[in-house]
Amino acid sequence: MSKKGRVLVAMSGGIDSSLAAVLLHEQGYEVIGMTMKTWDYALSGGKKKETGCCSLDSINDARAVAVALGFPHYILDIRNEFGDYVIDHFTNEYLAGRTPNPCVLCNTHIKWDALLRRADKLDCEFIATGHYARVRFENGRYIISKGVDQEKDQSYALWGVSQQSLSRTIFPLGNLTKKEIRAMASERGFVELVNKPESYEICFIPDNDYRSFLKRRVPSLEASVRGGDFVLEDGTVVGKHEGYPFYTIGQRKGLGIALGYPVFVIGIDKENNRVILGQRHELARSNMSVRQLNMVKYPDLQGKPVETITKIRYNDEGTPAQIVQEGDLMKVHFHEPVFAIAPGQAAVFYEGDDVIGGGWIYQSWN
């Protein structure tokens, strides 16, 4: 075994995870590549060709890197684990009137656990991924922080990874930029990776049409929710909708409503199958509560106000806020109103570049 140790690298077939494996190999680690098969899109009835981390092309791309550098590569079938947890949760959240974030859930509950179990079987001390993030050990805690490439930073999606998992995790790309990664791939002859288009859609919805996915997943859904009321906040009915699960907080396009001014979805009333509409200023909220917390940097903040930058979605720049933990809930007070807080999405609290912790948005108010 290498002096650096043996590391199991999650390889999706894209440039980032491939270069993570390449760099670790060059640094002297004994690398084992593993590509996870999370979903068979043909089973969902979608019309678009299977793409992304689960496609045969992606598996072959990952294997080609391993062959070129002479390290083992395996395929790990976790479709049952993934489907039972991530996809069921995804469906149930929309049926509950919330907006889920399956990628965060998958990182937290599926990928890391699956990788670590296989790492143990393969006698690997570490696991690694191609995320643009960093991890360090400080004051008895493993702390996640943003990658140096702020435009590619993926720390938001990692708040739920446990301390035990972080203790064995390496992020080889955390101190590099995407531009540098592309240059490194070119220099090493992996030109196909540089030219390969990146995938941003949810892996089990490559056509990006979650509404059709829900209809296929729950055949009786459309008939049971179609024809509910679009209402204003005072209860005035202004039209009929296609069913509350097919709308998200902040949505403006595709409403089919003309009121003489722009309207947005400002609320979902599951119990009465109503979608509440309003103007943009009615989306503003100054407070929210967050549950199912994982506190990364500070494990105990009970009753202690802390100033943070809080992000309410992946591409959110973040807003200054004070957080106070009360039991199992985190109360968040924004110092300026934020727009379109969606229950079911992840909230992540930052101190500088460090992730303090995160959880799932429960509710919001003024």
Quick overview of this protein structure:
The protein has 366 residues and is α/β, with parallel strands linked by helices. It has helices at residues 15-26, 56-69, 79-95, 102-121, 163-166, 178-187, 191-195, 210-217, 221-225; strands at residues 6-10, 30-37, 73-77, 126-128, 133-138, 141-146, 169-170, 229-232, 237-240, 264-269, 274-278, 284-295, 306-311, 319-326, 329-339, 346-351, 354-365.
Protein described:
The structure is a single chain. 26% of the residues lie in helices and 30% in strands. It is an alpha/beta fold. The chain has 3 domains: 6-195, Rossmann fold, CATH 3.40.50; 220-278, Adenine nucleotide alpha hydrolases-like domains (SH3 type barrels); 283-365, Elongation Factor Tu (Ef-tu), domain 3 (Beta Barrel), CATH 2.40.30.10. The strands form 4 sheets. It has a 6-stranded antiparallel β-barrel. It has a 5-stranded parallel beta sheet with strand order 3-2-1-4-7, with helices on both faces. It has a 4-stranded mixed beta sheet with strand order 9-8-11-10, with no helix packed on it. The radius of gyration is 22 Å and the shape is globular. 42% of the residues are buried. The mean pLDDT is 93.
